[in-house]
Write a structure and sequence with these properties.
This protein folds into 2 domains: about 5-125, Ribosomal Protein S5, domain 2 (2-Layer Sandwich), CATH 3.30.230.20; about 135-285, lpxc deacetylase, domain 2 (lpxc deacetylase, domain 1, 2-Layer Sandwich), CATH 3.30.1700.10. By secondary structure, the chain is α+β, with helices and mostly antiparallel strands. Helix 1 crosses helix 2, helix 1 (about 80-85) crosses helix 5 (about 235-245) and helix 5 packs parallel to helix 6 (about 265-285). A hairpin with a 4-residue loop joins strand 16 and strand 17 (about 220). It has a 5-stranded mixed β-sheet with strand order 2-3-9-4-5, with helices on one face. Strands 11-12-18-13-14 form a 5-stranded mixed β-sheet, with helices on one face. Helix content is about 25%, strand content about 30%.
């Protein structure tokens, strides 16, 4: 039996600064009617333009995933979208008074908690779940991502980096709200110490600090806690990002995902590939995956 769509039961608010823009932002999560999807609304712009959180509206993948429509943009949406996706929220209005969600502590934990506090509300329309009938692989140089048939959703994410503080890391989890809350949502964004100045020269990481990112040195990590939350925190954060990018398919997923050496560009290319398959299956005889 296909489950029904859901939204949140009441408004919830998160405030802070954007990771890359450094702009102060208040973000409001609001219930939305069935079949609305996830929509970002720029309340600071004339006409309050709405930007759907779908693959067709991706405009950038440099150090984060950015969405845009008719000149209106919202940057670094992956952490917010990751939390929304795992909670099974299909319809949501996200109002922002700037062009980037708050970075919080560099993870998805605050967004996940804010949405859980809002509560979930069932709706009278069925979900459209995408479940592959055969493995769907994506390969580009050393990057590999595959969605294979399987119950529920599980992900194995492998990070390989020629760096003494990383090397090879792997994270493997069944994706459900409790596991995500405990094992994935707290994993923070990261960068290398030698990247910081270059990022700032490019106009990025203006809101970044040791309060909201892990900075990796050759023999230690720099952050507010002076330690990692998990031994494989970097692989877990890559999984968190991947989930956020997968959400842009615009529907729930079922299957087993294996991913190696990923980043936002590859994630988005993979989702575009999935979208073509999902669209084809819907258009043939009205069949829905």
């Amino acid at each position: 039996m296909t489950p029904n769509q859901r939204t949140i039961a009441q408004e919830s608010v998160v405030s802070g600064v954007g990771l890359h823009t450094g702009n102060p932002t208040t973000m409001r999560f609001l219930p939305a009617p069935p079949d609305t999807g996830i929509v970002f609304v720029r309340t600071d712009l004339p006409g309050r333009p709405a930007i759907p959180a779908t693959i067709d509206h991706v405009i950038g993948v440099i150090r984060g995933t950015s969405l845009g429509l008719d000149g209106a943009q919202v940057h670094t949406v992956e952490h917010v979208c990751s939390a929304i996706f795992v909670l099974g929220i299909d319809n949501l209005r996200i109002e922002l008074d700037a062009n980037e969600p708050p970075v919080a502590d560099g993870s998805a934990r605050e967004f996940f908690q804010a949405l859980r506090r809002a509560g979930l509300a069932g709706q009278d329309r069925p979900k459209q779940v995408f479940s592959p009938s055969e493995p769907l692989p994506y390969r580009s140089n050393e990057t590999e991502i595959t969605l294979a048939p399987g119950p529920g959703l599980s992900i194995r994410c492998t990070l390989v980096f020629d760096h003494p503080m990383i090397g090879r890391q792997e994270a493997d989890f069944t994706i459900d709200p409790d596991t995500y809350s405990r094992e994935i949502a707290p994993a923070r964004t990261f960068c290398f110490d030698y990247e910081v100045e270059a990022l700032k020269r490019k106009g990025l990481a203006r809101g970044g600090s040791l309060d909201n990112a892990v900075v990796i040195g050759m023999d230690r990590v720099y952050n507010k806690e002076k330690t990692l939350r998990f031994p494989n925190e970097f692989a877990r954060h890559k999984m968190l990002d991947l989930i956020g990018d997968l959400s842009l398919l615009g529907r729930p997923l079922e299957g087993r995902i294996t991913a190696q050496r990923i980043g936002h560009g590859h994630n988005i290319n993979f989702v575009r590939q999935l979208a073509k398959v999902a669209g084809a299956r819907i258009s043939v005889g009205g069949e829905r995956p």
